[in-house]
Design a protein that fits this description.
The complex is a heterodimer of chains A (303) and B (283). Chain A is mainly alpha-helical. Helix content of chain A is 54%, strand content 11%. The chains are: A mainly alpha (303), B alpha/beta (283). The interface between A and B is large, with 54 and 45 residues.
Chain lengths: 303, 283
């Protein structure tokens, strides 16, 4: 295989990348067969030189393994909650299938899980029998990635609000804020998993090297989240992550604002649709808006 | 060279990589460090804690950007969106120079997140140099390209790695971030003399040096950045300083990161070699 031009360089790089993107075998080795069923060793020999210690296959395999270890490690760290629901083995199978179908399309590993929810909706067999719970957790954990470092616009000013007629006032929500409507209490479950993992880490830190492999086995299975219809805001404040449960009407207002509805209409609709009686809505809504403003959630609305 | 057009005519000393486990220590204790190298991609975000930390660091320290995902050696043109984000960061940090690797890592918009080796051919050198020139013109900052560690060689290669590095940097008229540890790792993996490499790169183009630790396996060496610098690499560093002169040097320690003081102490060992070189030269 020669590289005498840019197209030939592309051809070589495409071939090598295709080899790296192919999942490893169950023994974490490079697959012995190429896509068309031919010998992988013969394919590697076409473009990689062997040396006195390693065949072309073995040299290519180093890169194949490093690629998979890196991306799987990244998803492993980003989805502790989903991992706790599915179990380690099942999670790794899912992660491999996901990355095989949707390799990274971003320069940063931060975005590696961006299409995981889409993948799980397309191939729910990976999360059976906890489909709904696992989807909730996937959304919840991706929202944390967004909350960590997504953009924050300057908060809307009082003048900007006062300059707009009440009937036309729209508020934007900060991009880092995610509003989630969930069917399982994954927020509490996530906190329990974090606490459990922190305890295990403390134990590991005090153990000798020989004892360390035992630590993972000691990790007790977390009790799965209970079914509960909840509304959660995942956000950051002072650059730390928070999850905040919202009352249904508060959630409805925020979701309507994000959709571009005026403040007046969002509030009216939320109250009209509420099943709750004997609530002083004016006071309640004022408290919510005070709270959200103090958290910096509002910014000028942009279509 | 101590100060040249490839490092913005600066004269930086010994720096270390800015890493998450050290944030708290650095911000609380404000240790004396000549400069920090940041991984550009970690800060090419729109908000949150990374940028807050960066701004605090920038108030007190000199910062140089080092990238891992520009992929100058990719057969494709550079990603404009990536460059725009990078330029925003360049304006924020005011980095005197910027470095990334002589490698490729993505094809058709799919990323391997690895620093993959180049086939050492003249066509590849031309394509790579064109990408570097495009990046430099867009970013308006000097660029140094770093030699990577590699574990495979291509049948297509027509020349040695150091000749390829020289060709690319001449064509692009850019600088070199000479990674001494990477030369050592590759020399063991590909059976070449690392001193021949050091002796034959264009020394006047070296704007910065990297040193790091590596791990030995049965049949190859892996560039792991999880150890102190090993003796053969220090020996090569001493030789590099003799050839190039006192040059901005950075210790990379990216995995199993020990305390800040340990990392900084390891980096400062480089001073011993610099001092020795000047004493010998003076004598």
């Amino acid at each position: 295989m020669t590289v005498k031009s840019r197209p030939q360089l592309k051809e070589l790089q495409t071939l090598m990348a295709s080899a790296l993107f192919r999942p490893l075998t169950a023994e974490d080795r490079m697959q012995p067969r190429w896509i068309d069923g031919s010998s992988m060793a013969a394919v590697a020999d076409r473009f990689i030189k062997p040396n006195d210690r390693l065949s072309a296959f073995e040299r290519l395999e180093i890169y194949n393994r490093v690629y998979w270890f890196r991306v799987l490690d990244c998803l492993y760290d980003d989805y502790p909650g989903l991992r706790a629901i599915l179990g380690e083995k099942k999670f790794m199978e899912l992660a491999t299938a996901y990355l095989a179908k949707y390799p990274s399309v971003s320069f940063t590993l931060r975005n590696l899980g961006e299409r995981l929810e889409k993948f799980l909706r397309e191939e729910p067999q990976w999360i059976a029998p906890h489909k709904e719970m696992a989807l909730d957790m996937t959304r919840f954990e991706w929202a944390q990635v967004v909350a960590f470092d997504d953009a924050a616009f300057p908060p809307i000013t009082t003048d900007e609000i006062l300059d707009t007629p009440r009937s036309k006032l729209r508020l934007g929500l900060q991009p880092y804020l995610s509003l989630l409507e969930l069917n399982y209490a994954v927020d509490k479950f996530f906190i329990a998993v974090q606490k459990r993992d922190a305890d295990v880490l403390r134990d590991e830190a005090s153990n000798t090297f020989e004892a360390m492999p035992q630590a993972k086995r000691r990790r007790r299975k977390a009790r799965l989240p209970r079914r509960e219809h909840i509304q959660v805001a995942v956000h950051r404040y002072d650059n730390a992550l928070y999850y905040k449960r919202l009352e249904p009407e508060a959630f409805a207002i925020l979701r309507a604002l994000r959709g571009g509805m005026t403040v007046e209409k969002a509030c009216t609709n939320a109250v009209a649709k509420s099943a709750r009686k004997n609530v002083d809505w004016a006071t309640r809504i004022k408290e919510w808006f005070d709270d959200w403003s103090s958290l910096g959630w509002f910014c000028p609305f942009k279509r | 060279m101590p100060a040249n057009s490839f490092n913005g005519f600066t004269n930086y000393g010994i720096g270390i990589g800015l890493r998450v486990p050290h944030y708290r220590h650095i911000l609380a204790n404000k240790p004396v460090v000549d400069w920090f190298e940041i991984i550009s991609e970690n800060f090419m975000v729109d908000g949150g804690r990374p940028l807050e930390v960066l701004d605090q660091i920038l108030e007190q320290y000199r910062v140089v950007q080092h990238g891992v995902a520009m992929y100058f050696g990719s057969a494709e043109r550079l990603n404009r969106e990536h460059l725009k984000k990078l330029k925003r960061l360049v304006k924020r940090t005011n980095t005197p120079w910027l470095s990334d690797h002589l490698c490729w890592g993505s094809v058709d918009g799919r990323y391997t997140h690895d620093l993959l080796p180049m086939p050492y051919t003249f066509a590849a050198a031309r394509a790579t140099a064109a990408n570097i020139r495009e990046a430099r013109d867009f970013l308006e900052v000097p660029i140094c390209v770093e030699n990577v560690s590699s574990y495979a060689e291509f049948h297509a290669s027509e020349t040695t790695e150091w000749e390829f590095l020289s060709e690319v940097t001449e064509l692009a008229d850019c600088g070199i971030l000479l990674d001494v540890n990477n030369i050592y790792v590759s020399s063991k993996n590909h059976n070449f003399d690392p001193y021949e490499y050091l002796n034959n790169v264009p020394h006047h183009r070296v704007g910065q040096i990297h040193i790091a630790g590596h791990s030995k396996f049965e049949k190859y060496i892996l560039d792991t950045h999880d150890h102190p610098v090993l003796d053969p690499v220090w020996k090569m560093y001493a030789h590099a300083i003799k050839l190039i002169g006192k040059t901005a040097t950075l210790l990379e320690w990216d995995d199993r990161i020990p305390t800040f003081d340990e990392v900084h102490g390891e980096a400062l060992k480089a001073n011993k070699f610099v001092k020795k070189h000047f004493e010998t030269a003076a004598a």
